Amino acid sequence: MSLRLFLATLQFMTRIPVPERWTQGLAMDNYERGIVGFPFIGLIVGVIGGGVFTLLAPWCGVPLAALGYVLALALITGAFHLDGLADTCDGVFSARKREQMLEIMRDSRLGTNGGLALIFIVVAKVLVVSELALRDVSMFAMLTAASVVGRTVIVLLMYRQRYAREGNGLGNIYIGKVTGRQTAVTLAGGAILTLLLGHSAAVWALVITMVVVLLLATYLRRRLGGQTGDTLGAAAEMGELVFLLALL
């Protein structure tokens, strides 16, 4: 993967400023090759989030530092994945037909199910991070690994999956487009980074997370007829949470 493609993917996945001249001339149909860089984008995001927690914990205590960590991730990504989680829950739990679910997910307004999902994910992350901090855990490394894992497992909702909507969308850049080789390289890259950060315990947590996300992918495919950009975001958020829970 070229540096220009990696920077374009970083710009796409985060709000980290990337000079326009560094990504000019890259066609959108090349973006799926950037999937192999997702674990490393997770590494960058995780270092920032883990750094915020590490800096805040001695000054304001673990619970507020955990809240700062969650807020930092939201700001770095522009709440990109949180928005996907909320839209997915609004649609999937609406008890409507498939077409109506997809239409609800496209609606920019936040519904009750989406609001509850956002409250749950934020509270759950704060509680789990606070509990981990009470144990003999290297918090900076584990919080960094959580972001790596969250972005790595997204590929499981892309490989050999169908785009649920008619026409194009952001998710259609990747869904059904990534190859088996790209998927293997992405998972291997995520596993290596996770091993380096958290050793065998973190790798086992990654395996558990992959199983849960595969089950999520199967459920969403049955409910929606495929995946969308929103379900990719939901998978990233759930992947981070499941990984942290698995460490407990």
UniProtKB/TrEMBL annotation:
<dbReference type="Pfam" id="PF02654">
    <property type="entry name" value="CobS"/>
</dbReference>
<feature type="transmembrane region" description="Helical">
    <location>
        <begin position="180"/>
        <end position="197"/>
    </location>
</feature>
<dbReference type="InterPro" id="IPR003805">
    <property type="entry name" value="CobS"/>
</dbReference>
<keyword id="KW-0812">Transmembrane</keyword>
<feature type="transmembrane region" description="Helical">
    <location>
        <begin position="35"/>
        <end position="57"/>
    </location>
</feature>
<feature type="transmembrane region" description="Helical">
    <location>
        <begin position="114"/>
        <end position="134"/>
    </location>
</feature>
<keyword id="KW-1133">Transmembrane helix</keyword>
<feature type="transmembrane region" description="Helical">
    <location>
        <begin position="203"/>
        <end position="220"/>
    </location>
</feature>
<keyword id="KW-0808">Transferase</keyword>
<keyword id="KW-0169">Cobalamin biosynthesis</keyword>
<protein>
    <recommendedName>
        <fullName>Adenosylcobinamide-GDP ribazoletransferase</fullName>
        <ecNumber>2.7.8.26</ecNumber>
    </recommendedName>
</protein>
<keyword id="KW-0460">Magnesium</keyword>
<comment type="function">
    <text>Joins adenosylcobinamide-GDP and alpha-ribazole to generate adenosylcobalamin (Ado-cobalamin). Also synthesizes adenosylcobalamin 5'-phosphate from adenosylcobinamide-GDP and alpha-ribazole 5'-phosphate.</text>
</comment>
<feature type="transmembrane region" description="Helical">
    <location>
        <begin position="140"/>
        <end position="159"/>
    </location>
</feature>
<feature type="transmembrane region" description="Helical">
    <location>
        <begin position="69"/>
        <end position="93"/>
    </location>
</feature>
<comment type="similarity">
    <text>Belongs to the CobS family.</text>
</comment>
<keyword id="KW-1003">Cell membrane</keyword>
<comment type="pathway">
    <text>Cofactor biosynthesis; adenosylcobalamin biosynthesis; adenosylcobalamin from cob(II)yrinate a,c-diamide: step 7/7.</text>
</comment>
<dbReference type="GO" id="GO:0051073">
    <property type="term" value="F:adenosylcobinamide-GDP ribazoletransferase activity"/>
</dbReference>
<keyword id="KW-0472">Membrane</keyword>
